[in-house]
UniProtKB/TrEMBL annotation:
Name this polypeptide is given: DUF58 domain-containing protein
TM ranges: 12-30, 36-56
Record-annotated DUF58 domain positions: 204-368
PANTHER family per UniProt: BLL2464 PROTEIN (PTHR33608), SLR2013 PROTEIN (PTHR33608:SF3)
Keywords: Membrane, Transmembrane, Transmembrane helix
Pfam families in the record: DUF58 (PF01882)
Native source organism of the sequence: Euzebyella marina
């Protein structure tokens, strides 16, 4: 049965059959072709058996494997490598099929190659998942045929391989590398001018020319009979929280990715940068209930906890309870912290309903409300109109777009920091706002 299951007829064989059939048909009018057609038929049968012998007689045949990262990165192109080797004594023609996870909905994966005896081959392709979760790769199938191309032998490797898709690890590593090399400006992050002094005291030292005279410590000067100044350092270990709204407003998709996933990817990259800058990072997700709460901790290993929590975050179909969020922040976050709130408001009335809770949170903490531009509306606004109906649609789109600007001004009026951004620019603007707040000593 294994022999029967692995034996396939090559497409070229049917072309041979078509030629023989044509010879038999023509022999009706050209009789001398009839014995030639039968001779060719017996030759084809002999070649069929010989091709089977060539493919099934060797003890060592073909080896192949698929190399997949331990974790795939959501919304990024992840490289998958196929490696294969031929141990046959003749040239082989290979047709390789990799059974991709059902989430990709791709059923036409096919790669062709040819190998000589003992030759190695490899092929690399990339997959871009747009949902977190478990992705199961099926069989790696290789069809081998000889130069005769009459039959194909099927080989199966690596039955079923599950790979988890996590929030964008590639994006996090990219920003991490640039922050270490001080090249964040390469991705559009602005350099923020530092204003004034940070407030974390380091030591008292003797005055040297060039020190700011406003930092002179008069009590220490009197004791030492020499000018002494206070020295400050950048404030560290300040609590920073990513707060993600998982309600229905975050289900809206852009470029195949939900707003929630944009927020999750940005939170991971932002938390990594904050930890590298010696701040404490935490996580809170909510909708009708508080779903996840991770207290702010200043440990590099703490990022793994945040990553695992973000892996399991999903949206709900209900409206989010900002009153519940205010109660959780008041009970659990006791120190003044930077709160990055990822949510979305499509109407100014929706913002005004939640504004009392946002103001209550902002009294004790530095609150940054992050919401999204509707890029589909922007494309509609820029489109040339051809009819009265299109003018009407464009007018409504402009109204919704202007409401986003009004929401931003409304929050600024009450002293709440905001980020209004396109989904694909979220990570950049979030990190930039964090660096700005740190540089200006607002926390």
């Amino acid at each position: 049965m294994q022999f029967v299951k692995s034996l396939y007829i090559h497409n070229t064989f049917f072309r041979y059959i078509a030629v023989l059939a044509a010879c038999f048909v023509i022999s009706y009018w050209v009789p001398f072709l009839y014995p030639i057609a039968w001779l060719l038929t017996w030759v084809l049968c002999a070649l069929f058996l010989f091709d089977i012998y060539l493919l099934y007689s060797p003890a060592k045949t073909i080896t192949a494997k698929r190399s997949v990262p331990g974790k795939l990165s959501n919304s990024d192109y992840n490289p998958i490598k196929l490696e294969y080797t031929s141990h046959y004594n003749q040239k082989l023609f290979l047709e390789i099929i990799d059974e991709l996870p059902v989430q990709f909905q791709k059923r036409d994966f096919r790669y062709r190659d040819s190998l000589l005896k003992g030759e190695n081959g490899e092929f690399e392709y990339a997959v871009r998942p747009v949902e977190r979760g478990e992705y199961v790769f099926g069989n790696l199938i290789v069809f081998a045929s000889t130069t005769l191309r009459i039959i194909k032998r099927k080989f199966i490797f690596q039955n079923g391989e599950m790979v988890p898709v996590y929030p964008s690890i590639i994006q996090m590593q990219q920003y991490d590398f640039l922050s270490i090399s001080n090249r964040l400006t390469d991705l559009g992050l602005k350099k923020i001018r530092r204003i004034g002094h940070t407030q974390e005291f380091e030591q008292i030292k003797e005055y040297v020319p060039g020190d700011d005279f406003r930092t002179i410590n008069w009590k220490a000067t009197a004791k030492q009979s020499n000018l002494m100044v206070n020295q400050y350092q950048d404030e560290r270990s300040q609590p920073v929280y990513s707060i993600i709204d998982t309600g229905r407003v975050m289900k809206m998709p852009f470029n195949g990715l939900k707003l929630l996933d944009y927020a999750i990817n940005a939170s991971l990259a932002f938390s990594n940068i904050a930890l590298k800058r010696h701040d404490k990072t935490g996580l809170l997700t909510f909708s009708k209930n508080i779903e996840t709460f991770v207290p702010a901790v200043q440990k590099v290993t703490h990022l793994n906890i945040i990553l695992e929590k973000l892996y399991n975050v999903n949206t709900a179909f209900s409206d989010s309870d900002f009153g519940l969020l205010y109660g959780q922040v008041k009970r659990k976050i006791n120190h003044r912290s930077l709160l990055m709130l990822y949510t979305n408001f499509e109407h100014i009335s929706a913002l005004r309903r939640q504004l009392p809770y946002l103001l209550a949170i902002a009294k004790k903490h530095v609150l940054v409300v992050i919401f999204f531009e509707n890029t589909e509306l922007e494309a509609l606004i820029e489109k040339n109109t051809q009819s009265l109906q299109e003018i009407y649609h464009q007018t409504i789109a402009e109204k919704f777009s202007s409401e986003k600007q009004l929401m931003q001004k409304e929050l600024h009026k009450y002293g709440i920091q905001t980020i209004l951004t396109k989904p694909e620019e979220l990570t950049l603007k979030t990190i930039n706002k964090y660096l700005e707040i740190k540089s200006r000593g607002l926390l």
